[in-house]
Specification:
Distance between the termini: 15 Å
CATH topology of the largest domain: UDP-n-acetylglucosamine1-carboxyvinyl-transferase, Chain
CATH class of the largest domain: Alpha Beta
Bound molecules: shikimate-3-phosphate, phosphoenolpyruvate
Largest sheet: 4 strands, mixed
CATH superfamily of the largest domain: Enolpyruvate transferase domain
Structural class: alpha/beta
Strand content: 15-25%
């Protein structure tokens, strides 16, 4: 896999690599992270489709949420920032999009956000007008065919801007103001987001939606369960009692006032710091009950040798003398963080059920193997995951491939291996613009003294 070229800012000037702080003693810190990307973008979609104004409290403010807000504004929703009590930015008030006369052509920038490129086209189908979808260069490589075919099967015209048949971004959705819905068969084996996208709008189809998946297993099932839970919370009837079938009854989506949980997937790198440094990290406000896949950190990190407790809403993770290798199936978006820990483990690890990570922000399996091995590690791709064996790591540059979770994986490796630099740490802005600051704060709290910043170098 070719490593990314040196990052440049808007004026073309090379941006120095980020010297990953090395933990010369165990971390001992309490950390909170911004709101969940998956919950923020689901609630934004539901609010745009709801039967009245809604409020999101303590939502995420990041590139992915900004792209979702802008996309929904383009489709006619009014979204306003209002003061709130969240530590990471204002609340959001959303006035849903109308169902008016013909609307002018609009352009939607999906960036690299899977939730925008998958969740928004079905909403555009309900709009009376054409919407052009495009995104970052790598977004054009992410799997989109299932959504395009699904909309066509529902009677919605989707074409390339030159009139051809697209199978990926960019494409044009010609909304006619309504979608009949009914029984729809799709292959969602490349991304759970295909299922979530259609379920989120299903209640607004005239006949509702009976969605059926056929093909290899759907990955990231926790994210579909999250979609079903938020829909039910907004009064939508969803029957998911038969595997691979979801039936959404037609009807209104109730307006809501909803506090967004912190992003438990993004809590992962901080919790991993406890293992990487043999220290302790506490996260207050850990939800008692959640649909977020990041709740799996409790079992994953325990299996890797940490002591994990959840008391009075505070998750405490303490690393042991060594990180244990393990076998994990379907770690979904947690996989890059898990892989970084596996590269520091004393025994071999296997990650399975994550073939679809090849279609994420980058081909994550190839990127992880390349970057772990670049530091002297021993990682190998399998047909559906990774094998990572113990090997002494050394200093070097970890490339991010515009992938926020590759950048944070580099930060974890840098805690345990002196002299690691991360190319394009700013890519963490996709879901956590505050990452470098929160990481530095964690290290400044005690335990590990933060290493002097080293001069960035091109690698
Ligand atoms: O619906 C969501 O919010 C997400 C679903 C998952 O996508 P895949 O099913 O493509 O893995 C996950 O990896 C992504 O980060 C967020
Ligand atoms: C796969 C991810 O993002 P997206 O929502 O763009 O698919 C991720 O955040 O790990």
């Amino acid at each position: 896999m070719t490593a990314a070229a040196a990052t440049r800012d808007n004026s073309g000037t090379p941006v120095p690599h980020w010297p990953a702080p090395f933990a010369s003693s165990p971390v001992d810190a309490t950390v909170t992270v911004p709101g969940s990307k998956s919950l923020t973008n689901r609630y934004l979609v539901l609010a745009a489709l709801a039967d009245g104004p809604s409020r999101l409290r303590a939502p995420l403010h990041s590139r992915d949420s900004a792209l979702m807000i802008e996309a929904l504004r383009q489709l006619g929703a009014t979204i306003t920032e209002v003061p709130g009590d969240g530590a990471f930015g204002p609340d959001l008030e959303v006035v849903p999009l109308g169902q008016d006369a013909e609307q002018p052509l609009t352009r939607i920038d999906c960036g690299l956000a899977g939730t925008v490129m998958r969740f928004v086209p079905p909403i555009a189908a309900l709009r009376n007008g054409a919407s052009v979808f495009d995104g970052d260069p790598h977004a054009r490589k992410r799997p989109m065919g299932t959504i395009i075919e699904a909309l066509r099967a529902l009677g919605v015209a989707v074409s390339a801007e030159d009139g051809g048949m697209p199978s990926s971004l960019p494409f044009v959705v010609e909304g006619s103001g309504e979608v009949r819905g009914g029984h729809l068969v799709i292959d969602a084996s490349a991304s759970s987001q295909f299922v979530s996208a259609l379920l989120l709008v299903g209640a607004r189809f005239t006949e509702g939606l009976h969605l059926e998946h056929v093909g290899k297993p759907v990955p990231s099932l926790d994210h579909i369960n999250m979609t079903v839970a938020v829909l039910r919370g907004a009064g939508v009837q969803v029957d998911d009692s038969v595997p691979n079938h979801w039936v959404v009854q037609p009807g209104p989506i109730r307006a809501f006032d909803q506090r967004i949980e912190q992003d438990l997937s993004n809590a992962g790198p901080f919790l991993a710091a406890a293992l990487a440094s043999g220290g302790t990290v506490r996260i207050p406000g850990w939800p008692e009950e959640t649909q977020q896949v990041g709740d799996l950190w409790r079992s994953i990190l325990a299996e890797m040798g940490a002591t994990v407790t959840l008391e009075d809403g505070v998750l405490t993770v303490t690393g042991g003398p060594e990180i244990k290798g393990a076998h994990f199936a379907d770690t979904s978006e947690l996989a890059p963080t898990v892989a970084a820990l596996c590269a520091l483990a004393s025994g071999p690890s296997r990650l399975t059920g994550i073939a679809h990570l090849r279609g994420h922000e980058t081909d994550r399996l190839a990127a992880l193997v390349t970057e772990i091995n670049r530091l002297g590690g021993d990682a190998e791709e399998t047909s559906d995951g990774l094998v990572i064996r113990p090997a002494p790591l050394h200093a070097g540059v970890v490339h991010s491939y515009a992938d926020h979770r590759m950048a944070t994986a580099g930060a974890i490796l840098g805690l345990a291996v002196e002299g690691v630099q991360v190319e394009d740490i700013a890519t963490t802005a996709k879901t956590m613009p505050e990452f470098p600051r929160i990481w530095a704060d964690m290290l400044a709290q005690g335990g590990a003294p933060q290493q002097e910043a080293r001069t960035g170098a091109e690698g």
